[in-house]
Structure formats: structure tokens, C-alpha cells
Design brief:
Blueprint (H helix, E strand, L loop, with lengths): L4 E5 L11 H11 L4 E5 H9 L2 H10 L7 H8 L1 H15 L6 H6 L8 H4 L4 H5 L4 H23 L11 H4 L6 H8 L4 H17 L3 E5 L6 H14 L4 E5 L1 H6 L14 E3 L4 H11 L11 E5 L2 E5 L34 H7 L4 E3 L2 E2 L14 H4 L2 E2 L2 H15 L3 E4 L6 H13 L5 E6 L7 H9 L2 E9 L3 H7 L5 H14 L2 E8 L6 H17 L4 E6 L2 E2 L3 H4 L7 E2 L11 E2 L1 E2 L10 H12 L25 H7 L11 E4 L5 E9 L2 E11 L4 E7 H10 L11 E2 H10 L5 H5 L12 E3 L1
Parallel strand pairs: 1-2, 1-3, 3-4, 4-5, 8-11, 11-12, 12-13, 13-14, 14-15
Antiparallel strand pairs: 5-6, 6-7, 9-10, 16-18, 17-19, 20-24, 20-25, 21-22, 22-23
Helix pairs in contact: 2-12, 3-5, 12-13, 18-19, 19-20, 20-22, 22-26, 23-25
């Protein structure tokens, strides 16, 4: 089988699902009738290492080495690892789920140093979580082997990253270049053996290597190095998230000993022009956003007459060629969202290109991947979802937007429900007030199971400095809407933002504690602030009272900037206490534990009122409906019964409407005229109708029936309880 383009992701990204860049590009190339083949070399190398024969060869590689006590233990248990490895991998691939019971007993798998750090598993997973508990144990088993590889075979090894230190903030190419002159490591040899087989199979004219993260960089260069040396007629291009952010000022010509081209930003137009170039139909000057070496100098070519493709033109991501049944579901960290991220295979999609908000001062909002906002229609999204389900046989979707737009999420949810698709999906959002109770219920009904969003520094002063456009109280209310709808909420938390004081760090921790205690937050993770070159802070640090410590622009990677924050706290010291407290809060523990006891140094007492979040949640935030807001009914037609109610000698004509949802039933009784009208309007506002009626339309219909006080009827019991059965205002 031959193809014009060979697309691949080098080791290592996630083990549970392929990184989607190659699938996106393959889908686009399909629309241009350009043949392509794709591979995820990360999962292929992983499976070559962690199998019976591969592990036996690995142990042979380290015989006679000077070993640490931990490595000595693992080597002593060599046969136990070799005998169990195929079984463990099959279990993590979902092929032998009943093994969870045996693994959970902890008498099947050998255990080394990672298990000394293991959390109390009963506390972490409860008595019912056999599958998750077993996956966590199996993951620790693999991590023990990873530690052995790092110590004895290849110091750069890591499951979701490889030689990441060589790629992260590498202003100079020197260290990486020197590493690439060394002999192949054991992992390198496995990688190149697989690459050779793939190159012989595909026989491409162009190899496109996607490098999303620093942890893919070293292996990308190793692959490019081998191809340039052994397949001189094949052109090699690098693209992806790493060059898009780090290599925008590239000037080191040595890079082009390994690659012919490096492209920036959206890859569709650049790769199409490169195909034309290698086939002789386009010239060098036709290339789009492409670095190459011309006359010995690094040259950036950007044909301005060539426009980018709109999102409706790029085709449906194509996951064919990938080993979709071979991915490994691991649970490395006992964190609900991290488990969702790494457990199970998710089809990746985006609702929109770029970010509809585009203001956060720590974010790379000057770059096109965030700056250029273009949403996709809900109908086209659903078309693509159906195509991917038919191709992969899997109906889980992770929308990887910078922030999914609420209006588009609403439209997508309605379209999913209308098409009667059974899908599971989750997305990244902004915690904005658009996420009302009713919208969250709609999202849940369409299959949304979780959202993640940036609470960042839970301080209103700093949120304003970030230009996040939210307040802590608002986040709490939005989180309650999601939680009550049954949608898990994960918050990205930040510490170390410019000018953040120790007081604000402790107060932020208190806000987070109260949200977990109130039950409106189920998962979170602390990240330390990093200044990047393409963010507003990186471009104007004085405005945020910080100074750059790395002003010199290197010839290779340039994004992360070391900075000095003279007015802020010593942020590094807070890391352990913040993360330890959070782990406990996520498991409903230690809410009464004084905040200062999480730290081994003196910290200020919180100034946040102990009932701040509960008070925010108890505030009445009702706002009158907008005339243009839509009314939609998701449920079945109710059973209607008319009856006469007698009380103290007077009679009143009434209507009873009985509603049946999947897990509950309920009835309401209203005046007969109102009941007749309500029964007649529900089919009109049914989700199956392509045109939704507005609030104003529904009110006009009510009044046309000769009825009075529409707001009094609609916003008070019993009609106001019908949201439980799918009567929503959006």
C-alpha cells in the first residue's frame, strides 16, 4: 500500500487515544483526493516495549548494571513482570475486564517503589470501584517499569512525554542537537525499527510529522534524521502545537539537517501546497507559512495569495489506519477529570476554531489558533459525529476547544437530541452566566457528562487582572447549575499570577475549599503560572509589575519566559500544600482542617468569610426572560385528564397533566383553560420542531387563547416544576 503523504505523531502523547492532528489532516486530504496514511508511533512503540518478548529484551539490556535498590527489586521480580505484562496490557485495553477483581486484591502483580506512594485505595475509589481501582494498580505497575527504563535504559523515557526537558524552553538547539549525535538508545532502536516498516509499507513522497508537545520533539527529530539519511527522495515536514508556539522565530539552520520544512498554524493549506511542491505542480514561492533552508539561510515563505480553508471545508477527521482497539486506558492520578482524560478512547472534535472570548492576559491570544474565531454549524458538527461513529464504532467525544461557545453548545445539544444520537461528550468552557439551569439540563440530556473550565486564581481582583470576565460568586452559581444537572465540573486553578500575594493564595484556597464543601465542584488541579511570549503579559510585563529575566531571543524555541515578580509571594513554596489539600477536598475530606496546617511555613489567615460561597449560592439570581429566548420541550406528550374540583360548595374545572420521564413521573393540576392551552402548546415547542418558539411567541399564544397573567402562570408552581420533565427556557 502506497500513499502520497505519511502522517504520524511520534512518541509519546496519550496512551488511551490518538492525538487528533493527523486525523484532521487526513480528513482534509480526503477532500482533495490526496492519498495518505497515518500512524501513532507512540502507541506502537509502547506496545513493542510492554509485551512479553519486548520486556524480556528490555531486562536483557540491563543485566549487570549498577542498580538502585528499587531497580534491583524489579530485576529480581523479572519473571513475574514478564509473565503478567501481556495480561495487564490486555486488561488496560478493555479486553479482559473481569481481571479487575484479581488485580484489586493486590496479589497478582509485582509491586515496587510506585506502590509505596499509593493512596489509600478504599478511600480513593470506594468499595464499588473495582475497574478504576484495578486500572490505577495496573498503571502503577507500568510506572514501576517506566522508572526502571528511566534509570537503566533511557533517562529521557516517559509514558506521555519523551525527552521533554530537551524540548521545553530550548532557546538554543545545542543540547538537543548534541543528543541527536549520540548512538541510538534502546527506545530509539524500537522507534526506528517501526518507522522503517511503516516507510516501506507506505512509500510516501512527503512525510508530515505532528509535534504537539515538547515531549514529542526529540523523537520527531530522530525520525526526521533517519528519513533524511535513508530516504533522500522523501521530503519531511514538521507541524503542530510545538512549532506553532515555540518555533516562530526559528533561525538555526541545523534544524534543517532533520527536516525539509516546518509549517506554522492551521496545517491544511500548507500541506496542500507542499504536496503540490513535491509533485512538481507548485514552486517554492507558493508555500504557505513554511520555514525552509534557502541558500544556506532559514527562510520563511508565506504566499499571501493563498488563503486558509474555512472550517466547513476541511472535511471530517478520519481515524482510519490507527490502531483504535489497541489503546491503553490508564489511571495515573486519582482525579476524576484526569481519569476521564486518560481512561477510555475519545473521538476528538472542535466546535469552533479559536476562542470566542480571546481576552485572557496569560493566554497566547495573539496567535491565530486562538485569535481567529470561526464556529462550525451544529448540523455539520453532528454530520461529522455520525461519520466518526460509523468509522470508529465509538460514540464518545471530547471537544478540545479553547472554550466551547455556549450558544453553539445549545444548538449542538438540540441537534443531537433531534437526531436521537446516543453520544457521550465533554468540553472545555468558560464559567459564564450563559450556563443557566435550563441550558445545563439540555446539555445533560444530549449526553454531556463533564465540563472543565478556568477558575484560575479564585480572587476577584486577579480575575479582573486576567480579564477573565467572571467572578468567583458567578463561577459557584454556574457550577451549581452543572452539578444539579448531573454534569461533573473540573476547574483549572492557577497560583503564582503576577502580583499575587500570599494572602490571595490562601484566600483562593479557601474559595476552592468552600466550593468543594458546597458540592458544586468535583475535580480540580493547580497549575503554576507561566509567562509566554505571545500573551499580553509576555508582551507587556511592566503593566503587570513583573520583569523578564530571559530577554534574549534564541535561535530555536522561544515561548516560555523566566520572569521576576517582586510584589508577589514566593509562589513555589505553596505548590505542595495546595495540591495536598486539593486531593483531600476532592474526596470529601478535611474540610475542617485549618488552612495553615497544609503548609510547613507561616501563612496568613484567610480573609474570606466562611459562608462566602454558601451565601453566593443562596442569592436569588432570577432575571426575567428575554423575549427572544427559546422555549423547548424535551419530553413525551403528557396524559391529560379533566376533572371538577369541589371545595366548600364551589366547583372549579381543572386539568391534570401527567408527565413520564425516564426515571420519574409527576403530575400537575391547573385550571382547565390553562391546561388545555398547555397541552396544545407542548407539541409546538417540542425539540423535534426545527423552528423553536420564542418566549414572546409562547406568551402571545397564551394571550390569544384569552388567558391572563402569563408570567404568573409560567413562573410559579406547578408549571415552574416542569423543567424536571424537560420544559426548558433557553
Amino acid at each position: 500500500m502506497s500513499a502520497t503523504v505519511f502522517l504520524f505523531t511520534p512518541p509519546f502523547t496519550q496512551l488511551n487515544t490518538p492525538y487528533p492532528a493527523t486525523a484532521y489532516l487526513k480528513g482534509f486530504l480526503n477532500t482533495k483526493q490526496i492519498s495518505s496514511f497515518q500512524a501513532d508511533l507512540g502507541i506502537e512503540v509502547t506496545l513493542a516495549i510492554f509485551r512479553k518478548n519486548g520486556l524480556a529484551r528490555l531486562f536483557d539490556e540491563i543485566a549487570g548494571s549498577d542498580l538502585s535498590p528499587n531497580a534491583q527489586r524489579i530485576v529480581a521480580l523479572r519473571q513475574d513482570y514478564i509473565c503478567t505484562i501481556d495480561t495487564v496490557i490486555a486488561f488496560l485495553q478493555g479486553k479482559n475486564p473481569t481481571l479487575a477483581h484479581l488485580i484489586s486484591k493486590r496479589n497478582l502483580l509485582p509491586e515496587a517503589a510506585r506502590f509505596a506512594q499509593l493512596d489509600d485505595l478504599s478511600w480513593a475509589f470506594g468499595s464499588m470501584g473495582f475497574q478504576d481501582k484495578a486500572k490505577h494498580i495496573a498503571t502503577m505497575y507500568l510506572e514501576d517499569l517506566s522508572d526502571l527504563i528511566t534509570e537503566c535504559i533511557d533517562e529521557h523515557f516517559g509514558f506521555s512525554r519523551y525527552a521533554e526537558r530537551l524540548g521545553r524552553s530550548a532557546n538554543s538547539f545545542d543540547e538537543l542537537y548534541e543528543s541527536l549525535q549520540c548512538e541510538y538508545t534502546y527506545i530509539d532502536r524500537l522507534l526506528i525499527d517501526i518507522l522503517k516498516q511503516r516507510m516501506a509499507q507506505v512509500q510516501p513522497k512527503l512525510v508530515a510529522i505532528s509535534v504537539p508537545f515538547p515531549g514529542n520533539l526529540y523523537t520527531a527529530f530522530r525520525c526526521g534524521q533517519w528519513i533524511r539519511s535513508n530516504c533522500p527522495d522523501v521530503k519531511v515536514v514538521m507541524g503542530g502545537g510545538f512549532p506553532n508556539t515555540e518555533l516562530r522565530s526559528l533561525s538555526d539552520p541545523r534544524v534543517f539537517e532533520f527536516f525539509d520544512f516546518i509549517t506554522l498554524d492551521d496545517g491544511e493549506a500548507p500541506i496542500e501546497n507542499l504536496v503540490g511542491y513535491v509533485e512538481g505542480t507548485k514552486s517554492l514561492s507558493d508555500l504557505k507559512r513554511t520555514f525552509t533552508l534557502a541558500n544556506g539561510a532559514v527562510t520563511f515563505i508565506n504566499n499571501q495569495s493563498c488563503g486558509d480553508y474555512r472550517q466547513g471545508q476541511v472535511g471530517t477527521p478520519d481515524y482510519s489506519d490507527l490502531l483504535l482497539t489497541e489503546y491503553i486506558s490508564a489511571i495515573e492520578v486519582v482525579n476524576p477529570m484526569h481519569s476521564l482524560w486518560s481512561d477510555g478512547r475519545w473521538n476528538k472534535l472542535t466546535m469552533a476554531h479559536g476562542c470566542y472570548w480571546g481576552k485572557c492576559t496569560f493566554c497566547d491570544i495573539t496567535l491565530d489558533y486562538i485569535k481567529v474565531y470561526e464556529p462550525i454549524t451544529a448540523s455539520l458538527l453532528c454530520d461529522r459525529m455520525e461519520e466518526i461513529i460509523a468509522q470508529t464504532g465509538q460514540n464518545g467525544f471530547h471537544f478540545v476547544d479553547e472554550a466551547a461557545p455556549p450558544a453553539l453548545m445549545r444548538s449542538l445539544a438540540l441537534e443531537i437530541i433531534r437526531r436521537k444520537l446516543i453520544v457521550t461528550w465533554w468540553a472545555n468552557i468558560r464559567f459564564e452566566k450563559s450556563f443557566t439551569r435550563d441550558l445545563c439540563l439540555l446539555l445533560k440530556a444530549s449526553g454531556c457528562i463533564a465540563v472543565s473550565g478556568g477558575l484560575e486564581v479564585a480572587s476577584d481582583r486577579l480575575l479582573e487582572l486576567i480579564q477573565k470576565g467572571i467572578t468567583v460568586a458567578q463561577v459557584a452559581k454556574v457550577n451549581r447549575h452543572f452539578t444539579e444537572a448531573g454534569i461533573m465540573v473540573h476547574a483549572y486553578l492557577m497560583y503564582g499570577f503576577p502580583t499575587q500575594t500570599a494572602q490571595e493564595t490562601i484566600d483562593s484556597l479557601e474559595m476552592v475549599r468552600q466550593m468543594f464543601q458546597a458540592g458544586v465542584l468535583q475535580s480540580a488541579f493547580w497549575h503554576q503560572f507561566a509567562m509566554t511570549a505571545h500573551s499580553p503579559i509576555g508582551q507587556n510585563p511592566a503593566l503587570y509589575k513583573v520583569s523578564k529575566q530571559t530577554e534574549v531571543i534564541g535561535s530555536f524555541a522561544n515561548n516560555d519566559i523566566v520572569h521576576l515578580d517582586p510584589t508577589g509571594a514566593d509562589h513555589d513554596t505553596f505548590s505542595y500544600g495546595l495540591k495536598k489539600s486539593l486531593l483531600n477536598y476532592m474526596h470529601g475530606a478535611c474540610f475542617d482542617y485549618p488552612l495553615h496546617k497544609w503548609f510547613d511555613f507561616k501563612v496568613p489567615r484567610t480573609t474570606v468569610a466562611p459562608d462566602f460561597i454558601s451565601n453566593a449560592l443562596s442569592e436569588d439570581d432570577y432575571t426575567g426572560p428575554k423575549p427572544t429566548s427559546k422555549v423547548v420541550y424535551l419530553g413525551k406528550p403528557p396524559a391529560v385528564e379533566h376533572f371538577t374540583k369541589s371545595k366548600k360548595g364551589s366547583q372549579r374545572e381543572m386539568t391534570s397533566l401527567t408527565f413520564h420521564a425516564k426515571s420519574a413521573s409527576g403530575s400537575i393540576s391547573v385550571d382547565r383553560e390553562q391546561g388545555v392551552w398547555l397541552a396544545s402548546v407542548l407539541p409546538q415547542v417540542s425539540v423535534d420542531n426545527p423552528r423553536l418558539l420564542s418566549w414572546q411567541d409562547v406568551k402571545a399564544s397564551y394571550e390569544a387563547a384569552g388567558l391572563d397573567d402569563f408570567e404568573l402562570f409560567w413562573d410559579n408552581k406547578p408549571v415552574s416544576t416542569l423543567y424536571k420533565f424537560g420544559l426548558l427556557r433557553l
